[in-house]
Amino acid sequence: MQTPGPLRMILVHIALLAVTLLTLFPVLWVVKMAVEPGQALQLTVNPFPTSFSLQNFRDVVSTTAADGTWLFGWQLLNSLVISGATALVGLCLACTAGYALSRWGFPGREEAMGLFLLTQMFPGVMMSVPLYMLLERAGLLDTMTGLILVYSTTSVPFATWNLKGYFDTIPKDLEEAAMMDGAGRWTTFTKIILPLARPALAVTGLFAFISAWNEFILAATMLGDERRYTLPIVLKGYVGEFSAEWGHFAAAAILVSVPVTVLFFILQRHLVEGLTAGSVKG
Amino acid sequence: MATLSFDAVEKRYGAVPVLHRVDLEVADGEFVVLVGSSGCGKSTLLRCIAGLETISSGELRLGGQRVNEVAPRDRDVAMVFQSYALYPHMTVRENMAFALELRKHPETAARVADAARMLELGHLLDRYPKELSGGQRQRVAMGRAIVRRPKVFLFDEPLSNLDASLRQQLRVELRRLHRELATTTVYVTHDQVEAMTLADRIVVLDKGVIQQVGTPDELFFEPANRFVAGFIGSPSMNFLKKLEAGVWVGVRPNDVHIGGGGTGPVYRAEVEVVEKMGFEAMVHLRLGDERLIARVEGAPPAGTVELSFGRSYRFDAETGARRP
Questions:
Q1: ipTM over 0.90
Q2: Which domain holds residue A40?
Q3: What is the CATH number of the domain that holds B39?
Q4: Are B318 and B260 members of one domain?
Q5: What is the value of pTM for the model shown?
Q6: Cβ atoms within 10 Å, residue B256
Q7: What is the pLDDT of residues A174-228, one digit of tens each?
Q8: Best mutation site among A174, A176, A179, A180 for testing chain B: the one with the most B CBs within 10 Å?
Q9: How far apart are CA A18 and CA B20, in angstroms?
Q10: Same domain as A180, residue A80
Q11: Closest partner residue to B98 among A173, A181, A195, by Cβ?
Q12: Would A61 be classed as within a structural domain?
């Protein structure tokens, strides 16, 4: 391959720089708004803060209800529990379903796979009305269980497809070897297949967690009591129709993104393995 | 340790037959090799013994007991796969101990140590399969089978992923292991050299039908038909059609004598190509419009030569069956 000329290199770097700025500027603005006192929306050319205060963070974290309940604490817990449970439900149901779909032919297999895909094609908004009616009938409106079920309707099919795809790449010989070694189906699944699918489980779980963590529309539809709110609803609350607390909004936005970032770092190793899984023969 | 008997065993996929009426008795402690070209049903037969394939009709008995309906894990049969099928997330030690640990066997550690010593795997016990060479993986796969002390060992082309020198080395090792353990063994390969060197008895399969069962010498010197004659021996037997009507005349390359030494008629042939192999040479000849190979020691001939045959065989041109 020929080394590109200096002019070409300069142009490439200018393009890269432009894209980098485009991506970084909004993030820097959010940081700037969060750490500068005041609530105004200021889109200045200078993305760096000119003054520094943690007041916005303090305000957001210490939000309390009229009766003195620590709202932010509850809302953070809601988000964690709902997202964690969605990921857990998704993984538990999807790993067995994905394995069955990967390994056995049975009547209705193709149809099931197709239906799973179909559910992914509808946007959340469109599903919100029927889901609302279902939850109302089941008496699960405004509950964590209800929202977890709602999120599972999208996380389970996605996770099933994802895990089925990964199970397909695990050689059948390994299972046959385990069966000859004296393992039953369940032992083979838990001792051979699941440990080997760890990267895929990490990616799938993380994806389900993040989707639930960031979801706004369905949460806003199903939850009424602010003590049950998840963080995206809280975020939206700072920028209303008549008043906009941009400082608080920015501080809250940063706080909301912290857990996901931490999770990402923890699972990073598995993520890379998972995303390239199957590409290299072991 | 056990005997193994096939009684009119058939295997069909839907309406497609893969194995036709297989009748075979394997004695206790015997080393039987199934050979045939790819798609002949040898691997299917092996998987039927393992229980990984069901039998469509007939009966399979292991140690005198019918096992048609017995699950793989309850057959007490160990298998070495072509791909080795080592558990990638387990160390060599864990791989070898897996079967015994499932059964909570009290001597697991001792048995693993024993097998590791036998296969010289002691220094590799804490490694993972991906850190091993092909030959080492193969030995771990054998170790995993050995620690169980099963009734029967099954090998599915275990050496086909290795290079020639390693293959030869492991062949010797396999033979030695079998002498030590004396476990009934069924070994599948498409390589007739492996079959000849390893087997007590060889089973030659073609299109799902057993062609001949016999010791390596029986198959080599008394082939039942043209398929067996052509399959066993390297380079393979020469078949000439024009010497006798309605009959293929078969002559092994070492029975083609150039310049005399044979009995019977003398033919004139052209030397086309000579492959030198050091001690000996393979001489490719043209006899009329038919080709044949002669194995020659010493200086190879050139040009037009006279040749005669030592031992020759006659096979029916229609059915391929051996004629007296």
A1: no
A2: 6-53
A3: 3.40.50.300
A4: yes
A5: 0.83
A6: 25
A7: 999 999 999 999 999 999 999 999 889 988 999 999 999 999 999 999 998 888 9
A8: A180
A9: 72
A10: yes
A11: A181
A12: no
